[in-house]
Design brief:
By secondary structure, this protein is of the alpha/beta class. It folds into 2 domains: about 180 residues, Rossmann fold; about 60 residues, Helicase, Ruva Protein, domain 3 (Orthogonal Bundle). The chain is built from 11 helices and 9 strands. Strands 4-3-2-5-6-9-7 form a 7-stranded mixed sheet, with helices on both faces. Helix 5 links the parallel strand 5 and strand 6. It is elongated, with a radius of gyration of 21 Å. The termini are far apart.
């Protein structure tokens, strides 16, 4: 059994409950890819359950001591898919500085992890950026962040992260994890979510404009769009469109796409 000796870096809290670790690993459905990338494996409590999968497992870890521990705990002879291919590899480094395409030679890869709270949203945005190569994504976040990602329009926590993620992935909130199963325990609950890339993961509008519209709208989320989007120099005729009387949290992903198209049609 993998030890989960107390350790913390980059805001990370290490999971000590084996059943929860297995449930997180099982969040990956395993369709459409041969590689799994685990971010921040720490002492390997999640890793050992990932090794039961048929995919090739790569773990990326910033902490040198953890890298050494993982290599010692999961030696080569115990983790082979066959006699020539290694099932498990540990890379020392920062995921946010890595190029996913280059790491996996443009092959499809699922991403999973017990993500450090303080970089979890950056991890999500990187997965969105490289969605062409990421068909599935599962992991544990601070519960508030997990709920925000999965939330639908009409909610007070629905925002930029919700819209930009759901534009390309179907998101499911799977289960809540209490603080007492971590070492050291965080002060808040955690939540496990799964992203499954949509069959059509390209937008029918200009992507840069879409991102700009969403971010600008939610920067003043309490205002109607005709006010929050005034930096787009809206014409009087455009402001008369009923959509501009709404607040951003009232708009679905498809409505934001329509809004972006309206702006593009007016030369914005």
């Amino acid at each position: 059994m993998v030890s989960v000796k107390a350790k913390k870096h980059l805001g990370q809290h290490f999971l000590t409950d084996e059943s929860i670790a297995k449930n997180i690993a099982d969040a990956l459905i395993g369709s459409g890819y041969n590689h799994v990338l685990e971010i921040g494996p720490g002492m390997g409590v999640l890793t050992k359950y990932l090794l039961d999968k048929k995919a090739k497992i790569t773990a990326i870890e910033l902490d040198r001591a953890s890298v050494a521990y993982l290599n010692e705990t999961f030696p080569l002879e115990h983790i082979k898919l066959d006699t020539t291919k290694r099932h498990f590899e540990v890379i020392e480094g920062d995921f946010l500085k890595k190029n996913i395409q280059e790491m996996f030679n443009k092959e499809q890869v699922a991403i999973i992890g017990n993500f450090p709270y303080n970089i979890s949203t950056q991890i999500v945005f990187k997965a969105i950026e490289h969605r062409e190569f990421v068909p599935e994504f599962a992991g544990m976040f601070q519960k508030e962040v997990a709920m925000r990602i999965a939330e639908k329009e009409g909610s007070k926590v629905y925002g930029i992260l919700s819209v930009l993620t759901q534009a390309f992935f179907d998101v499911e909130y799977l289960f809540t994890v209490p603080p007492n199963v971590f070492n050291p325990p965080p002060k808040v609950d955690s939540g496990v979510i799964r992203f499954t890339r949509k069959e059509n993961y390209t937008l029918p509008v200009d992507e840069k404009l879409f991102f700009r519209v969403v971010k600008t709208a939610f920067n003043q989320r309490r205002k109607m769009l005709r006010s929050s989007l005034k930096s787009f120099n809206l014409s009087d005729s455009l402001k008369e469109d009923p959509i501009f009387t709404k607040r951003p949290e009232q708009l679905s992903v498809s409505s934001f796409i329509s809004l972006t198209q309206k702006l593009a049609d007016h030369g914005i």
